[in-house]
Amino acid sequence: MVKVIASSIRKGNVVDHEGKLHVVLTAENIHPGKGTPVTQVDMRRIIDGVKVSMRWRTIETIEKADVDEREYNFLYSDAEGFHFMEPTSYEQVTVSEDVMGDQHVYLVDGMTVYLKTFEGIPIAMELPQRVTVEIASTEPVVKGQTASSSYKPAVTTSGLKIMVPPHISAGTRVVINTIDNAYYERAKD
């Protein structure tokens, strides 16, 4: 365990709180105009999956667990979970749905992700910041809309709902930001 200040905690970190390990789901530093800055953290307890919300002063020290973080390639998913392979040792790991959360909509065969494991058990996954997805359906363009200010709803082949510019149609591959599902650009492939 390593002691770090609360303001340095990020999504995917593993922290020790009250003797139990927790995976950080969200971490936000709040700086009010008056008063002490705080770090608001939502976490999931690794043992039983219970979600916990904590608030620490930004200068408080938190114990951060030392986890193994390595690149893995996505293979496939089935009833057991999501299967990944470590590219150098060919070791395979199965990630359960509760660890995966709603990130499964971004997965594509062969995609490289960073898996965090603690004592051989997958506890968190970090996606690339941008991924390429294919648009399955979208609304037709409304005449008179300007391309600069208006976006229209679209659904990807994996079921993810995003907003895209009017010139994007079904079958088009686009690059999106995995943090906020924002359209980035048309894919260059």
Question: What's this model, at a glance?
Answer:
This protein is mainly beta and 189 residues long.
Please provide a written account of the structure:
By secondary structure, the protein is mainly beta. The chain has one helix at residues 97-100; strands spanning 2-5, 14-17, 20-30, 38-45, 51-57, 61-64, 68-78, 81-85, 92-95, 112-118, 121-126, 130-138, 152-156, 161-164, 173-177, 183-186. It folds into 3 domains: 2-64, Roll (SH3 type barrels), CATH 2.30.30; 68-126, Beta Barrel (OB fold (Dihydrolipoamide Acetyltransferase, E2P)), CATH 2.40.50; 130-186, OB fold (Dihydrolipoamide Acetyltransferase, E2P), CATH 2.40.50. The protein has 1 helix and 16 strands. Strands 1-6-2-3-4-5 form a 6-stranded antiparallel β-sheet, with no helix packed on it. The radius of gyration is 20 Å and the shape is globular.
Overall structural class, as computed from helix and strand content, comes to: mainly beta
CATH topology of the largest domain: SH3 type barrels
Number of strands: 16
What is the typical, i.e. mean, pLDDT?
86
With strands numbered from the N-terminus, the spatial order across the biggest sheet is 1-6-2-3-4-5
Series of secondary-structure elements, N-terminal to C-terminal? EEEEEEEEEHEEEEEEE
Number of helices: 1
Strand residue percentage: over 45%
Low-pLDDT ranges: none
From the structure provided, what is the oligomeric state, counting identical versus distinct chains? single chain
CATH class descriptor of the largest domain: Mainly Beta
CATH architecture of the largest domain: Roll
Question: What shape does the CA trace take?
Answer: globular
